[in-house]
Design a protein that fits this description.
By secondary structure, the protein is an alpha/beta fold. It has 14 helices and 9 strands. A 7-stranded mixed β-sheet has the order 5-4-3-6-8-7-9, sandwiched between helices. A two-stranded antiparallel sheet has the order 1-2. Helix 11 runs parallel beside helix 14. The longest helix is centred in the first third of the chain and has 26 residues.
């Protein structure tokens, strides 16, 4: 007690400005240490290797599928951005992504999916060929099946209407994320069995090493040629026939520049048999993660009831505002996409879709949930404190 009294008396003799300065210095020091630590742990994606900028496909006249150079809209967009910077123009209003070549691009991230990939591709090709294939009537080029009552409804956005009326065709980009099984061979064999022009619509990209689902999706999105680009999980859990619903939802909300995002949602299935049968731990972690999302993400992103559904559609003009700024390569990448869309003022629609539980998931419920929580915290802090920037 005597020692504490001596310390207190000594502190009373210290000038108040000096005490304030010491406190401020301590706070600044703690902040700088936190910022340095954040700078170290915040993920920075590596540039793609040369072999990762090629793809293989099966042309009607060949069987092996030789490697070809991947077209990359982002490289051309980056060149425009650099030219604008040199002119002293820092705005993005006069920059445009190159024109699409097909109506729909599908990106499929695949890590050791030789068992499930074929089933998913069969459903996807059936829908894509029927809705957007060469034999589809021009009236269906907006992504709606003719048998639907709302297939010919007017599109309020003029940009979307113009591009939808003159484009059809589709492509699938299968991004093998460092697979060690026969995922690539399975994809190419599927294309061979498909035959005809449709076979060349399937492009297979091989990443040298596993980057995570987010890294595979982002890589594929850099090379899409479609007016619309969607990514879907290789397990086929999402009902592909709901793609038309996402297209229509995006077209309804697109701004004057044609920017829009439509995300598939399983929120309406909460309480259904598929969710109720899950373990108590999995449901607990799911609700905890949703609470964390509401606390750490900006308002529009926090309002999305299902951020993690692997069925998200992007209009082509929205891609330059999202894809070049992606950092997350793990499970939390969906949230970064939505945050980037919100920060760029891109309208986002949430659309209920059909979904089913599929065996073979590579998600470790406990550890991956903890990793997602950590990734979300790092992501929010990195963007909030300027470690990540739109520059």
């Amino acid at each position: 007690m005597n020692y504490l009294r001596d310390v207190f008396r000594t502190s009373q003799r210290v000038p108040l400005p000096l005490i304030v300065a010491l406190i401020v210095s301590a706070i600044v020091g703690i902040f700088l240490l936190f910022y340095l630590a954040l700078f170290i742990v915040a993920p920075v994606p590596r540039p793609p290797l040369r072999s990762e900028t090629t793809y293989r496909t099966i042309e009607p006249s060949e069987y092996t599928g030789e490697a070809r150079a991947l077209p990359c809209w982002q490289d051309k967009y980056n060149a425009q951005t650099e030219a604008a910077r040199r002119r002293g123009d820092s705005t993005e209003t006069d920059l445009h992504v190159e024109e699409p070549e097909v109506f729909m691009s599908l990106v499929v991230p695949a890590f050791n999916e030789e068992e499930r990939l074929g089933i998913m591709l069969t459903e996807a090709v059936e829908y894509l060929q029927h809705a957007y294939g060469d034999e589809a009537p021009k009236a269906q080029a907006n992504g709606n099946r003719a048998k639907r009552k709302d297939a010919t409804q007017a599109i309020p956005n003029g940009y979307a209407e113009l591009n939808s009326s003159r484009l059809w065709g589709w492509e699938i980009l299968i991004v093998s994320d460092g697979s060690t099984d026969k995922t690539v061979d399975t994809a190419l064999q599927f294309a061979r069995d498909l035959g005809g022009k449709s076979a060349s619509c399937i492009r297979v990209i091989s990443l040298h090493e596993n980057r995570g689902k987010g890294g595979a999706v982002t890589h594929g999105m850099r090379h899409v040629r479609g007016q619309y680009a969607i990514f879907a999980d290789a397990d086929g859990a999402s009902k592909f026939e709901d793609l038309g619903k996402l297209v229509r939802a995006s077209q309804k909300i697109e701004d004057a520049d044609g920017r829009g995002v439509a995300v598939g949602s399983r929120a309406h299935l909460v309480g259904s048999e598929a969710v109720v049968k899950r373990s108590f731990l999995r449901n607990l972690l799911m609700h905890s993660f949703h609470l964390l999302l509401r606390l750490l993400t900006p308002p529009a992103t926090a309002a999305i009831r299902d951020t993690q559904c692997g069925f998200k559609l992007f209009s082509r003009p929205s891609l330059p505002y999202i894809i070049p700024y992606m950092h997350s390569e793990g499970w939390i990448f969906d949230v970064e996409m939505l945050m980037l869309a919100e920060s760029a003022g891109i309208p986002v629609a949430e659309v209920p879709i059909g979904w089913q539980e599929v065996k073979g998931s590579k998600l470790n419920v406990l550890w991956d949930s903890l990793g997602m929580a950590w990734g979300l915290a790092v992501l929010r802090a990195a963007w909030g404190l300027g470690v990540y920037r739109r520059s």
